[in-house]
Amino acid sequence: MTRIKKKTKIILFSIIAIIVIGLAVLPTLVKNYAINNSKTLLGRKIDIGSLKYNYFTSTVRVYDFKMFEQNDTDDFIVLDTFLLNLNPLKLIKDKVEIDQVYFSHLTVNTTMKDSTFNFDDLVAFHNSTDTIQKEDSPPLKFSISDIALKHANFFFNDQNVNKETHVEDFNFEIPYIGWDQEEKSNADLKFNLKNGGYFKSSLNVDPSSGEFDAHFTIRELQLKPFYEYVAEHAEINSLSGSVNSEILITGNTNEASKAIVSGKIDVNNFEMTDKANKKFLGAKHIESKIKAIDYYNSSYTFDTFKINNSYTFFQLDSTSNNFFKIFKLDSPETTETAVKDTLASNEKALYYAVNQLVVENSVLDYTDNLTGEPFNYHLSDIEINSKAITSTSEWIDIYSTMLLNNRGTLKANLGLNPNDYYNSTLDISIENFLLPDLNIYTNYYMGHSILQGDMFYTSKSKIVDGQIESENKLLVKNASLENTKGGLYNLPLKFAFFLLTDKHGDIHLDVPVRGNLNDPDINIGKIVWQTFKNVIGKTVAAPVNFLVGLVGGDPKDLEEIDFSYTDSIPSEKNYKQLDKLLELEQKKPELKIDLTYFVDNKLQGEALAKAKLGQAFFQETREDYEKQDKDFEAFVLAKAETDSLSLDDAINKLVQQPEKDSLVVAYKNSLIQSTETYIKEQAAFSKTEIKEAKKEDPENTGTFPKFKISYGMTAED
């Protein structure tokens, strides 16, 4: 009996020893089996440093886990530590209960090339169809507590742009998830950003109703790592800045697409440079307060959108501008895509609202090369303010002020219907604008340089159903110009300014603009320029209309001085006209006045011949020949000793052509000389010149003697 008991103990201890040894080596066997059959089980080769199981606490520990790439050499997933703490007794009640799931120092390497990823084979492997039909089973009862991922690192290598993104020190915690959970689950996540800053989130989900809220915090997210992605769509050399945000998303997991987004986004020290490494867009601070973004209903509402200390460099050429070129907006493909996207987006009614738009202390540098010479202009202290900009507004007012080239000031008020830009208003006022800033344009288009001058400008423009009516008033102070050669339109701007200048040295100019914006061929710039040309042209073509305001009287008195054929000296009326001309010279010292003598020599010769015979008639009869027609005719015929000739033929017989020509010259010389003498006696300073028109000039035909008055400037070339 003793021997039997002894043998039984030996067998029992042996069995126990075998079980203990089996349990001890089981994790190793499982590890080796998993490694050797990993491709069948998981679709990839794996390696495990060690696998341990605590039978008393039901805790599984895995150390130094690796899953390789398809080439079986490079690391795809590396995990330093994995811990799983089970509660096996709950299995008796058909419930899986896990007290702890812990991952430490997980590293995942993801690669993208074209549209494929380095894990596509794993997705295909695990999505393969199981041919065995499974019977429906009751829902799994489970509870998982204390889920944590610590110090993880994720690498994303986008070979399309040759860019690797690193998310480091990624941390994730979920206190509890259960199949019959009634309270909200909370999931916290945090990871550091490689170039500074961090990302943190907190997710709360009500498992019974599906209601959730998610809070996201981003601190100092650097924009530089995103350069390669932006460079795919823009010709830029650099991208920099940082983003801070607080975002709240609320919704229901059953209708996740109806979630509402709110919060705040701040961008600091934003800057983009072009391929020449020139900064073309930037801002010290951009603040956006999101009231509600409802993507499902296409509704976007912002409480505030504020831009502070922004900078824009805008370069215009004859075909495009730097923004279109940088963002590839002037290519046909881009335009066609944009049109299609716009049509697609218009399928849903879009609602947008910005309760307050603010731009503060901003700068715009403008340049163009339209004239063949760079034109640079600096706009600073730009302030823009508007309230209640919405897609449903019937009217929006936007106010703006800015400094022009560090001196002039501009104030503007734009009013418009956001749904119909063909109904709007624009009021502008400009003070102390430096006219020399425009020299490149005035030289190119008009052949003038503006040496000095300040401009004050007001404009009131209204567009009603596409019909523009714009009233523009310019006040120019102390303007002086210099002639240069040429000019595309060669406008006599200097003379026009001279004529328009009043006694205070100011120029007042009204430029009304009219046009139909519904006409696809309309060009507002051309309309304004053509209107300006017309104003200048009319001013120069009719200078009398502006000069008469200085001396008063009838404008016709400043156009020409008329005489009769028999006048050898000016009349009293003529002297008064000359006095007004001298007064003009005194008030406008740079005014140049020319008197050009016109007359029909033939008609004057005939008139003087008749007048000579009229003097003989008077001496004999003491009668005026112009009042005694019949007596005078009889007198002439008697002198001609004929009664068969007409009066004119009789006069021609008595006064031959050489004598007529001599009389014409004598009267002309007397009239011109007496006029010159009067001018010199009355105003020694006068630069008025008297000259004769060419004999072949058509204006002589049928003309009484006259001085035609023309105006110019003594300083003009």
Automatic annotation (TrEMBL):
Q: Which domain of life is it from?
A: Bacteria
Biological process annotations from GO: regulation of protein targeting to membrane
Q: Output a single Gene Ontology CC term carried by this record.
A: plasma membrane
| Transmembrane regions | 12-30
The keyword Methyltransferase appears for this protein: no
UniProt keywords, alphabetically: Membrane, Transmembrane, Transmembrane helix
Q: Which InterPro entries match?
A: AsmA-related (IPR052894), DUF748 (IPR008023)
Spell out the Pfam families in the cross-references: DUF748
Q: Where is the signal peptide?
A: none
Q: What is this protein called?
A: DUF748 domain-containing protein
